[in-house]
Write a structure and sequence with these properties.
four-stranded antiparallel beta sheet; globular; binds (2S)-2-amino-4-(2-amino-3-hydroxyphenyl)-4-oxobutanoic acid; alpha/beta; Aspartate Aminotransferase, domain 1; 2 domains; Aspartate Aminotransferase, domain 2; binds pyridoxal-5'-phosphate; pyridoxal phosphate
Length: 418
């Protein structure tokens, strides 16, 4: 049965659009939006690929023409290419709540997961023979963890994140957990779980892909042992931007990387036959960095200049609250069920809705200028990047979704989720 859009909905949509206008006018990050290249589409996919910061194209053009084109090989030293991984790591560190000297940028998240997970098992020592894994994890973390467990002779146990604290014990070397779940948008209790792992004598390795740049992480404050994350989501570093790796300062001197490339050597240009790791975070480097992508990420971080993470978080919660309210008012009852927790303490910066035929619906949303994404089998994800997403866009996305769902037969929204 096709349900027409009830007239009350257009009134509600108009009322919510007026509220959105007022919220946008009062938004302290309103001007930060101008730092990005955007168009008339409602872009709610910054949790997959962040929008292009205006600071990037000119910088990349300059790197190509001047640093590569004119200076060529001299740029390794004269343009600071040789120190880019740790320099950009230190630039990123405040967004993660980390003091300098602990974050290095480079490689992909998957590669950094491998380095840090095997490194964590080595740090934990021989007596600890199991790795715990967030059972809901993004697939790459699982694939890497399975291989790391095989290589190190450890047992891998995948557990619901809420059960990890209770299961961690004298055998646990490390637990690998996602700070924000990529499907549901659920935020995990990083301080409590890290503390519980420490209580058991185990290490905490956090995947921050869906939290870095969107909410406070406070790595140092919570004494997180190790963390990884990607540069292309809320950090807006561009497609395939280098990822980052964090190892807590007091673990660094004992951190034994399973990928000891020459760029992590104490003195790479000594070309020594023996590997001797650099004293600090530089030991997390592996091979020659991808300079063009790396410098694009560095320029992208300009978008955060003068922006406090607490303000980003406040706007993220206000946006997702408002979107959920709009969905509640504008989407036909039962047509889409929020999967993302309502509690602020458990919500990242995206809203996931379960809808039958989410894939088909996504195509129709995109055709009407609302760019979100879909994860199988039935999840629609709406990512809210507080630096450039406005309340009017949240209202427009919900109104468009409501119209589409009212145009087609409604079915059960699915209730077999978490
Ligand atoms: C939580 C999480 N971990 C890891 C990855 C994979 O990162 P990469 O492709 O940089 O290895 C992604 C996204 O692609 C992700 O969402
Ligand atoms: N890394 C991606 C890619 O290379 C292509 C398309 C999407 C992505 C993503 O980042 C997906 C993302 N990690 C997710 O949360 O599903």
């Amino acid at each position: 049965m096709n349900r027409p859009v009830p007239p009350a909905n257009s009134e509600a949509a108009a009322r919510l659009a007026r509220r959105a206008e007022a919220l946008d006018a009062a938004d302290p990050l309103r001007r930060v939006r101008d730092r990005f290249v955007l168009d008339e589409a409602v872009y709610l996919d910054g949790n997959s690929l962040g929008a292009l910061p205006r600071s990037v194209p000119g910088r990349v053009a300059d790197v190509v023409a001047e640093e590569w084109g004119r200076l060529r090989i001299r740029s390794w030293t004269e343009s600071g290419w040789d120190t880019a991984p740790e320099r950009i790591g230190d630039r990123l560190a405040p967004l993660l709540g980390a003091a300098p000297g602990q974050v290095v940028v480079g490689d992909s998240t998957s590669v950094n997961l491998f380095k840090l997970l095997v490194g964590a098992v080595r740090l934990a020592g021989d007596g600890r023979d199991e790795i715990l894994l967030d059972a809901d994890t993004f697939p790459t973390d699982r694939y890497v963890a399975e291989s790391a467990a095989r290589m190190t002779g450890r047992r891998l146990r995948a557990l619901p994140p809420a059960g990890i604290a209770a299961e961690a014990g004298a055998h646990t070397a490390v637990a690998l957990v996602n700070h924000v779940d990529y499907r549901s948008g659920e935020l995990r209790d990083l301080p409590a779980l890290t503390a519980a792992l420490h209580e058991a004598g185990a290490l905490a390795l956090w995947d921050l892909c869906h939290s870095a740049g969107a909410l406070p992480v406070d790595l140092d404050r919570h004494a997180v042992d190790l963390a990884v994350g990607c540069g292309y989501k809320y950090l807006n570093g561009g497609p395939g931007a280098p990822a980052f790796a964090y190892v807590r300062a007091d673990h660094l001197s004992r951190f034994d990387s399973p990928l000891p490339g020459w760029w992590g050597h104490r003195d790479p240009f000594a070309m020594s036959a023996d590997y001797a790791p650099h004293a600090g975070a530089r030991r997390l480097r592996v091979g020659t960095p991808d300079i063009l992508s790396m410098l694009a990420l560095e320029a992208a971080l300009d978008a955060f200049d003068g922006v406090e993470v607490a303000v980003v978080r406040a706007k993220s919660l206000a946006l997702t609250d408002f979107f959920l309210e709009c969905v509640g008012e504008l989407v036909p009852e039962g047509a889409a069920a929020p999967l993302t927790p309502a509690e602020h303490a458990r919500r990242g910066s995206q809203v996931s809705l379960r809808c039958p035929d989410a894939a088909g619906l996504l195509g129709r949303l995109v055709a009407r200028g609302v760019v979100a994404d879909h994860r199988p089998p039935d999840v629609l994800r709406f990512g809210f990047a507080p630096l450039y997403t406005g309340f009017a866009e949240a209202a427009r996305a919900a109104a468009t979704l409501g119209e589409l769902l009212a145009e087609r037969p409604t079915g059960p929204a699915g209730n077999g989720g978490r």
